[in-house]
Specification:
The protein has 273 residues and is an alpha/beta fold. The chain contains ten helices and 13 strands. The strands form three sheets. The chain has a six-stranded mixed beta sheet. Helix 7 links the parallel strand 10 and strand 11.
Length: 273
């Protein structure tokens, strides 16, 4: 069994906090570094259902991609929803750790897992980081082994990601041939100009807004494929769980890992119009 301090050190080797955005809040949120950790649950969101699952399983740590606290707070009373989560975790002997934009940029990280889920090969960062490792950076650009029409590529995206109520939307000619693809897990419309400059055939990301998407299409940008935010980041969980277990094992510690079975996409209904 590893200590929480051992687990945190392993996670920070895999997903260095220095890679995080300056506005981000990554790292240990709560937990005793000296506590033993036998089980680690991986999830995208730190929400009630995930904490329920972690405590029922007897996890000593929950690792989430999204932060519980992104803005500074002056207290965590159990009179607030987030405060109650912290109190439940502490009372249940379970810590919480966040790997967010550092996991987005890490190699391998969130975007490598998304690219792999779509069958992309020969991937490289869409926005390289100022790092010694050229594989580190935001987003990924890669190629399909065999180009295919956009309509077929959208079906590929559906098969590669977990199902959601909203499904997958696309913008572009269904017959457009897709051979090269850019991906960015999470909200990615801030990278639309970068994607256009990369010259790819399609861009897969989440939370695309009306005006930026319309303007990208009008300016000759690539086909756009819009997926659920949660779904775009979910493929990373299994990869992170396996890498943490292997990293600790290489140093003589053992933990049991599990990917949360709880979908945390906030959208639960959809009706086609």
């Amino acid at each position: 069994m590893a200590s929480l301090d051992d687990v945190v050190a392993a996670l920070e080797r895999l997903y260095p906090p220095a890679l995080a955005e300056s506005w981000d809040a990554v790292g240990l949120v709560c937990g005793d570094p000296d506590a033993d950790v036998g089980r680690v649950l991986f999830a995208v969101d730190p929400v009630v259902t995930v904490v329920d699952e972690a405590l029922a399983w007897g996890a000593g740590l929950v690792l989430t991609h999204h932060p519980l606290f992104l803005r500074p707070v002056h207290g965590v009373p159990a009179t607030t929803p987030k405060g109650r989560l912290v109190h439940r975790l502490i009372t249940g002997g379970c810590g919480l750790y966040v790997a967010h934009t550092n996991a987005d940029r890490a190699a391998p990280g969130v975007n490598d897992a998304l690219a792999a889920a779509l069958g992309l090969e020969r991937t490289q960062p869409l926005v390289p980081a100022d790092a010694a490792d050229p594989a580190v950076g935001l987003g990924r650009v890669g190629a399909l082994a065999t180009p295919e029409p956009l309509a077929e590529f959208v079906k590929r995206v559906v098969r590669g990601l977990p199902p959601t109520a909203a499904g997958v939307r696309a913008m572009g000619d269904p017959d457009t041939v897709v051979g090269t693809v850019a991906v960015c897990g999470g909200a990615g419309d801030s990278l639309l100009d970068t994607v256009k400059a990369a010259g790819v055939d399609a861009y897969v990301t989440a939370d695309l807004r009306h005006h930026p998407s319309s303007e990208a299409g009008e300016s000759g940008g690539p086909a756009l494929v819009d997926v659920a935010h949660w779904a775009s980041e979910w493929p990373w969980l299994a990869d992170a769980a396996a890498r943490l277990a292997a990293e600790l094992s290489s140093r003589g510690s053992t933990v049991e890992t599990r990917v949360s079975s709880t979908p945390t996409d906030p959208w639960t209904m959809h009706e086609s119009s």
